[in-house]
Amino acid sequence: MIPHDFRRPLTIVAAVVAVLSLAAVAAVMAVAFANGVAPVWVTSTALYGLPLAFILMAALVVDSVWARRRQ
Fold first, then answer.
1. Is residue 61 pLDDT above 90, yes or no?
2. Which residues cross the membrane (predicted)?
3. Which 8-state DSSP code applies to residue 59?
4. Residue 22, φ and ψ in degrees, nearest 5
5. Tell me: the pLDDT tens digits for 12-31?
6. Is the alpha carbon torsion for 50, 53, 55, 61 positive or negative?
7. Domain limits of the chain?
8. Inter-residue contact 41 to 28 (CB < 8 Å)
9. CB 2 within 8 A of CB 67
């Protein structure tokens, strides 16, 4: 179980990672549309950020369900 003090910061981190990853996806698409190649760090952010944010959000949802069932 995730301690109550860490739930809100973890939610904020997951949301920030998701937004940054979506911005990186948009940047990669814009650069590709201009017949260029995006930098590796932008491509990596787009590739790994969204799954990381999804896993964090899924863990928060599962933890919330477990906490409600215990009550």
1. yes
2. 12-34, 46-66
3. H
4. -65, -35
5. 999 999 999 999 999 999 99
6. negative
7. 22-70
8. no
9. no
Instruction: Give CA–CA dist 21/27, Å, rounded.
Output: 10
| Residue 57, token pair as written in the block | 């959000």
Q: How far is CA 69 from CA 4, 31, 39, 59, 61, in A?
A: 15, 47, 46, 15, 12
Q: What tokens does 8 get?
A: 């809100």
Q: Is the Cβ–Cβ distance between 57 and 19 less than 8 Å?
A: no
Average pLDDT over residues 34-40: 96
* d(C-alpha 27, C-alpha 32), whole Å: 8
How high is the pLDDT of residue 26? 97
Q: What is the 3-state secondary structure (H, E, C) of the chain?
A: CCCHHHHHHHHHHHHHHHHHHHHHHHHHHHHHHCCCCCCHHHHHHHHHHHHHHHHHHHHHHHHHHHHHHHC
Residue 45 one-letter amino acid: T
